[in-house]
Structure prediction request, 258 residues.
Amino acid sequence: MGTTSTTAKAASAAAGARSSPAAFSVLRFTAKLHAAVEVSRHTPLRDMAPGRRADLAFVLPALGRSGMALKHVSPELRADRTVVLAAVAQEGQALRFAAPRLRRSRSFVLACVAQSASALEHAHPRLRADAAFAELALAAQPLCLAFAPSSVRASKALVLAAVAQRGEALYHASEALRGDKEVVLAAVAQCGEALEHASDELKTDREVVLAACRQDGCALRFTAPDDPLREDPEVKTRRFPPCARASIQQSAFLGNLV
Prediction:
């Protein structure tokens, strides 16, 4: 009975579609899309016929599995914003295969960076070196500092803006700025464990270490086990998160074993 009912419903839907050109068109497109998804599941984009590499029904499912497959998409679709964004959302590095005009577009590259920090690496070189653009990119995605040129990673103003949002971005700052107390204080205030990326000198700075521990007690483990700061009265008595106290106790325990 159930099979008969289902068959009857399918026949009724097909009959309705034939009587309505728009409905029939939707059904035909849906059938094509399902077929395309099935094909792209088993056939890499690079092995598809040129016509399919220029067909959104085949291209979008393939990019959903591997953004780098953009390399094998037709030139027309590599200049299509929707297609490239779909690829970048899956793999930021896919921007390298986008049409040059898209890699030169400030608004488009910003949209890509918001999807994936690594997209910045493949923006047009002139755009990457533009301080005003870098400021916008870092505001959208602070961790794209990792893919910025050295001139940006050495800019105190730009690095300060990045670490204020994501302290761990300190790792990608220039060596000089990782030894800059103002920059490091801003970083550890946002993420205590950014202390790991500070210069050795600042890892022994009382103000910096206390600021890091206030944000995250676990930051204490990035100081040397024999660092006098571990015996500092404020460090020992302040009510840091349990991780800090554990670090102190573990250090004392290990010290007793030596």
In short: Confidence is low (pLDDT under 50) at residues 6-11, 244-258. Residues 21-42 form the longest helix (22 residues). The chain has 14 helices and no strands.
